[in-house]
Amino acid sequence: MDVLSGLDEQMPTRLAEAIRSMPLVDHHVHGCFTLPIARAGFEEAINEGSPDPIPSFMTQFDSQLGFAIRRWCAPLLGLAEHADADAYWAARSALPPAELNRLFLPRAGVGHWIIDTGFSASAISTPLAMSDDSGAGSSEILRLELLAESVAAGAASAAAFASDFREALAQALPTIVGFKTIAAYRCGFDIDWSVPTDWQVEQAVARWNAQADTALRLDDPVIISFIVHAAVGCRLPIQFHVGLGDRDMDLHRSNPMLLLGLLRQPQVQGSPIMLLHCYPYHRESGYLAQAFNNVYFDVGLSLNYVGARSADIVAESLELAPFAKQLYSSDAFGLPELHLLGAVLWRRSMAQVLGRWVHQGDWAESDAIRVAELTASGNARRVYDL
Ligand SMILES: [Zn+2]
Fold it and tell me: Where in the chain is the domain with CATH 3.20.20.140?
């Protein structure tokens, strides 16, 4: 499979060869399904926004992502490029999940996965299995809200929560390379980001305990601000879900400009803040990456979903942000097609965008190769200290 096939024949050859082969660090990704899924489940897994079944009048294959799967994944199943959705499904469903994972994952050319294990962990493969299936290394990211929920469930009292949480964070440190917050899903970014006192946290935890019926679902802005600031104290990178996500998130409240009140606090500037996926706010993220030395971002997930349009998103991501502040991610979850496609579409996009600038004489080819390598892996290796 030549991931650059069909692109401009005037593509600078050294750049093209470098982009084809450079190993990636996928700094925000999840495991693969370990059990077979039905076609309905597959189609739901290629729709990021809706939790509903796909309506009978359409197939989710009729989308940029569906077309990209038929273009790039069908040949790996022995089918022609652009094989139709039914043929694709017939070939795919004939293989067990383990075989699909070993077919697609290595072809992404990822050298290291940084895995968020905090979502549907029982349904997807472990970091160890991801490494086995791909031949790549792996590291883990800890979800702050998940940890807070388990600490709250075991805390002796509301007063014990703050110190219990700090202790749980300290215990987790040796096994992780960073944290993730899904504040965007739970309360939005338009909250008071000042550091709450332990007394304020105790009050909030008491309210939370009183409201909770069965499961403790953390959405209290005081507690979320507390756990983010507690993580800041550990000096590891903190990933923020930004932009594109399920519809149970208020997308407009995940605009990263709403994080200014947090980012301006001097103690926060000592920890790398990683803005994930960002679409449609990737230009705001680029601005923040220029405005704050500790802010980084990626356009993962969106590249898969915009398919043939991904070069335009990549071009926009290369506008304001310094090149030392951009990372690669797929944000793939469940389907190994997504782990592969993230890499394929990123390589094609970088080749198209940087190749054009080199060809026009705006950029030197050696600079283009260097910037591609920084985004592919160099920045992630530095920030996560891999
Ligand atoms: Zn994500």
Answer: 14-35+96-383
Would you list the DSSP string of 304-351?
A: HHHGGGHHHHHHHHTSSS-GGGB-------B-HHHHHHHHHHHHHHHH
Residues with CB under 5 A from ligand 1 (ion): 331
pTM of the model: 0.96
Which residues lie across from 110 on neighbouring strands? 24
* Assigned fold of 14-35+96-383: TIM Barrel (3.20.20)
Going by C-alpha positions, the residue among 363, 355, 273, 360 that lies closest to residue 314 is 355
Q: Residue-wise pLDDT tens for the chain (386 aa)? A: 899 999 988 899 999 999 999 999 999 999 999 999 999 999 999 998 888 888 999 999 999 999 999 999 999 999 999 999 999 999 999 999 999 999 999 999 999 999 999 887 778 999 999 999 999 999 999 999 999 999 999 888 999 999 999 999 999 999 999 999 999 999 999 999 999 999 999 999 999 988 876 678 999 999 999 999 999 999 999 999 999 988 889 999 999 999 999 999 999 999 999 999 999 999 999 999 999 999 999 999 999 999 999 999 999 999 999 999 999 999 999 999 999 999 999 999 999 999 999 999 999 999 999 999 999 999 999 999 99
* Distance between Cα 364 and ligand 1 center (Å): 33
Distance 300 CA to ligand 1 centre (A): 8
Cα of 111 to ligand 1 centre, how many Å?
A: 19
Tokens of 172: 């987790």
* Ligand 1: centre distance to CA 112 (Å): 17
The structure tokens listed for 232 are: 């800041």
If you measure from the C-alpha of residue 202 to the centroid of ligand 1, how many angstroms do you get, rounded to a whole number? Answer: 30
Taking the centre of ligand 1 as the mean of its atom positions, its distance from the CA of residue 156, in whole angstroms, is 33
- C-alpha 332 to ligand 1 mean position (Å): 8
